[in-house]
Amino acid sequence: MESNTFLLYGAYGYTGELIARYATQYGLSPILAGRRAAALAPLAAQLGLPYVAIDLDDTPALLAALRQVKVVVNAAGPYNFTAKQMVEACLQTGTHYVDLNGDLDIFEMIRKYDAAAKQADIMLLPGAGFDVVPTDCLALFLKNKLPDAVDLKLAFTIRGSGLSHGTAVNTVQKLGEPGAARLNGHIVSEPVGKKAMWVSFGGKPIFVLSLPWGDVATAGYSTGIPNIRVYTNMPMIAYWLLKVQVLFNWLLRNPIVRSIIKRKIDRGPAGPGDVMRTQATSYMWGQATNANGQTVTARQRTPEAYDLTAYASLLITQKILQGNFTAGYQTPAMAYGENLVMELPRVQREVL
Question: In this predicted model, what pLDDT tens digit does every residue of 93-144 receive, in sequence order?
Fold first, then answer.
C-alpha cells in the first residue's frame, strides 16, 4: 500500500478528472475508478495512472479495491446514489472516506455513521470541495472571533465560471424541493429565497437570497451556532418568482420536465474550460452575531469553485495519508481548523 496512493471514484467525471490531473501537485498518485472501463482507460493512459472499473453494487469488487488503499475520494455524484454504499464499504475495510457532496440530506445521513467510524478508526469527511471547505472555515473563523455567537449568515458568489454537467444534473434533481435553514439548533424546511439581503463581497453590493447550502448542516457542527442561513447571488426577479414557486413546484418535480431539462444539459459542455476557471474567482462573506447584537464580519476570496474543489480534496487526502486525521464524522474545519482554506493557493481573508 503506497503512502501516496488513494482511490479516486468517479475519476472520469468533470471534477474527478481535475483531481486526477492536479494530484501530482500534492505528491499523490490516484488509482482511477468508476463504473465504466471504457471511460477510465483513455484517461488512465493520458495521465499514466492505473485504473479499476467497479460497480458499487458489486460489493466484493468494491471491498477488494478499498482494501488496497487508505483513502477513497468519492467524486461520483449525485451522492444519494453513491455515498451510502461507499461509506458502508469503507467501514468494513478501514478506509477513510472523503467526498465532494453538498446536499444537506447526505451530510446528515453520513453523520449517522459517526460512532461506527470511530470504532473502525476511520474518518468520514464529506464536503471536501467548494461546498463546504471555504465557507466552513469562514464559519469557524467567525465563531472563534465571537465565541458567544448565536446567529451566522454566510453568502457566496462565483464570478466568471459555470456549472459542470454533474452539478447541473444534481440541481435538476432538486427542482421544486424546499430550502432549509438551521433555527434553534435544528434544520428546518423553508422556501428557497425566504430571506434576502444585499452583501458587499468587496465591491458594489450584490443581491443574495437564502438557499439550502451544505453549511446549514455542517456549520452547525463546526461552530455550535444555533441559527444559520446561507445565501447566494440571484437576480431580484428570481426572488419574486420564488415567492410564487409553490404554485408550480409540482411541475418542477415532474419526471418528464426534469428529463427534458437533463437532456438539454447533456448536450452542453462537461464544465467550464481551463481558461474560464483560471480567470474566475469565488467570493465569500460571513457575519456572526451574539445575543447582544454584537457582530463580526469577514470576507474571503478564493480560486474558482472547481479548481478549489480539486485543491481542497487533494490537500485533505494528503493530510490523511500522512496520518493527520480524526476518527468519526468530521467537517473540514472540525478536522483541520479555520485556516485549512488558507493552505490553498490564492486565498485571501479579511475582517471588516
Answer: 999 999 999 999 999 999 999 999 999 999 999 999 999 999 999 999 999 9
Query: Who contacts 45 (Cβ-Cβ below 8 Å, separation ≥6)?
Result: none
Apex CA 326: angle with CA 320 and CA 329, to 5°?
105
Neighbour tally for 77: CB within 10 Å? 25
Residue with cell 427534458: 260
- Give the residue from 290, 282, 133 showing the smallest Cα distance to 213: 133
Cell numbers that stand for 173 in this block: 434533481
Give 218-273 as a DSSP string: HHHHHH--SEEEEEEE--HHHHHHHTTGGGTHHHHT-HHHHHHHHHHHHTS-SS--
Q: What are the pLDDT digits (tens) for 75-107?
A: 998 899 999 999 999 999 999 999 999 999 999
pTM above 0.85, yes or no: yes
Count of C-beta atoms within a 10 Å radius of residue 45: 10
